[in-house]
Amino acid sequence: MVLPRHKLRGLSVLNVALVVIVLTIAVTAYLLFFRDESEAASTTRPTATVARGEVTASVSSSGTLDSSQSASPQFETSGTVTAIYVKVGQVVAKGAAIAKVDATAAERQVRIAEQNQIAADNSVEAAEESLTNAEEAAEAAEEAAASPTPTPTSGQTQQQSQTQTQDPEVAVTNAKASLARAKADKEQADQNMEAAEAAVDATTLKAPIAGTITAVNGTVGSVAGSSSGSTGSSGSGTETGTSSSTSGQATSTGGFVDIADLKSLQVVAAFPEADAIKIKAKQSATVTLNADPNTNLSATLVSVSPTPTTTNGVVSYSATFSLAKLPATARIGQTANVLVQTAKATNALYVPSTAIVTSGTTSTVTMANGGGSREVQVGVRGDSFTQVTSGLAEGEQIELLQGAIGTANSGQAGQGRTGQFPGGGQLPGGGQGGFGQGQGQGANNGR
């Protein structure tokens, strides 16, 4: 069928309009996507200038604020609690009475020991007297044997016969043996007396350290104490004990009270094994408390535990930090964040870490303005900046291949270095700054 001429003319106009629309869409898409991508590509590699200053590396972790000295003392003898002399929050001195258990049985043992001690003293006195008599008799016998012997009468003959049946030397030996036994019995009685008196003293629980009572775990009328009377220890400067605090048959593990020195606090934090090998005693650290994040506290690493702790397959090592000064608002148990400086290079050439590409043991940077890549030797590696020991000169321009540092968090490492940030690249989106303009707070100090 042949369409009329006016209809054919209408279809041609429609086709032309469709072609124009398609071309318009294509051109718009090109301008929107390909041009923007090209422009983005030209701005995703800002340049930075090799600078000189201080570079530091660090590792971080979080932990808790804890007392450097704490104790959980327990009664060394079992008994019913008759008195408690302290309450939570009370400050006590070392040796202060904390609580007391019934001392009736212990005091009875003291009275028995006293009687045995008196009897032993009497036995020693009697044995000493017997020895003295035996020695005097032996001396008299020797003198009689040395003098002339007159002719005895019948009565004297009978008396001498009876005396000769008792050897003076044997009597002395027996008396000495009796005295030795009496002295041994007295020594045992004295020891029993000391033990009985110590048992009475043990009925009063005393503070092993000076500090603040943080918990009272027993009540008057409950049964407390350990039959073994032993006290274990846990942690640095920490004393703990195993107790049985019962009302009826219930028992609880721990000391009768908990004491902590709240004037001397420390931070205990766990570091993963990859970071733990980088830290060691006497390294400086910075601590911030979640309760006061704007205050930096100076700290020193005291020790790193030689044994690890494994949690959900993750191995970590506990580190203890001492604080130079505590804010008045610091409280035991608060969350603390620790930053440990592990390495530092002063008067060093450095570049942004994002400018370095490392493959195996080889590190390279890309020079700006088409200068190609160059192999470099690196030293201290920080989170934001890395020391360059060879391969670059101060003032040279390089490209940031792995991202820019001038946006959002990029300038955080600027302040605190000994050198200014020369140069200054054009950042994606028109932002000025980059490595050359960073003026952040420097919390990481170039790490």
From TrEMBL:
Where, subcellularly, is it found? Cell envelope
Top-rank lineage group of the source organism: Bacteria
Give the compositionally biased regions (Gly residues). 413-447
Q: What is its main location?
A: other
What cellular-component terms does GO give this entry? cell envelope
List, as start-end ranges, the regions of compositional bias called Low complexity: 143-169
From the record, give the transmembrane residue ranges: 12-33
Multidrug resistance protein MdtA-like beta-barrel domain boundaries? 266-342
Region annotation Disordered: where it falls in the sequence: 121-171, 224-250, 409-447
Q: Which InterPro entries match?
A: MdtA-like_b-barrel, UPF0194_transport
Keyword tags: Coiled coil, Membrane, Transmembrane, Transmembrane helix
User: Coiled-coil stretches, from where to where?
Assistant: 172-206
Q: Know the name of this protein?
A: Macrolide-specific efflux system membrane fusion protein
Species for this entry: Kribbella caucasensis
Starting at the broadest rank, the lineage of the source organism is:
Bacteria, Bacillati, Actinomycetota, Actinomycetes, Propionibacteriales
